[in-house]
Amino acid sequence: MPRPSSLPLAGIRDILVGITEEGRGDEAAASLGYGLTLARDAGAHLTVQSAAPRLMTTAMPLCGFADELVVAENCRLASLARHAAERVARDAAGVGVICTTEAPSLMHHELVARLSARARLHDLTILDAEPFAVMPDRELMEGGLFRSGRPVIVVPPGWDTFRAHRIIVAWDGGTQAARAANDAMPFLRAAEADVLVCVGDTERLLSSVPGAEFAPHLACHGVEITVDDRPVEVDIAETLRRSAEQFRADMVVIGAYRHSRMREWFLGGVTQALLARSGVPLFLAH
């Protein structure tokens, strides 16, 4: 195992990166570079699950040709997943990061279950941002959040290097927000500047734990934070997105799914909207 670091990120000891090789050829897994550079900076162990989704054969007579195509595609995806794992292992060795890789070929429900189980054994999981309307991608991210008890960092395309100099904490006084801020403490302590953004009307903010009351708790943990109360612009997610842009944030910390997943899926919600619009990594906890 890597030796403990004297850096504030020493609280991050092991990191899981989960990628799914879908064989489209146009994907650049930003999560791999982000996870590798974070592991390097934190002196952490890196585990990469580079999975190939296994397609089902028809199980019907007179469909031999179709079955052959499915078998061939499964072999192709498995090969791509192995090559991705081998590449990241070489890259990790080049920067002195201890890295464990695995390249399983799994049915989708098995993939979600395996990632969720592996996530329980790591301090955090890193995934690529995907079109949230796609059910498999949604289930993978939710599995990491709801079945592991660990936080997830969702990385947008192109953000393949870890940095967290400036961080926004989305604060609504709720349970999920408190959990996210606490889980993100190593990053908040290491950042150069942190802002606690409270979004909402005056009545709503006063009915919860105000940011000004939460700030002293963070100060006890060595986090000096500025509290920024903001009115809603368009909606809460857009207000947070604009705040991140104005602050030039490298990360937004947010408690995921304040409402039920079913309600967010059908009616929309802050988590859904941020995943679709955020241009910076999201640190999610539930």
TrEMBL record:
<protein>
    <submittedName>
        <fullName>Universal stress protein UspA</fullName>
    </submittedName>
</protein>
<feature type="domain" description="UspA">
    <location>
        <begin position="165"/>
        <end position="284"/>
    </location>
</feature>
<comment type="similarity">
    <text>Belongs to the universal stress protein A family.</text>
</comment>
<dbReference type="Pfam" id="PF00582">
    <property type="entry name" value="Usp"/>
</dbReference>
<dbReference type="InterPro" id="IPR006015">
    <property type="entry name" value="Universal_stress_UspA"/>
</dbReference>
<dbReference type="InterPro" id="IPR006016">
    <property type="entry name" value="UspA"/>
</dbReference>
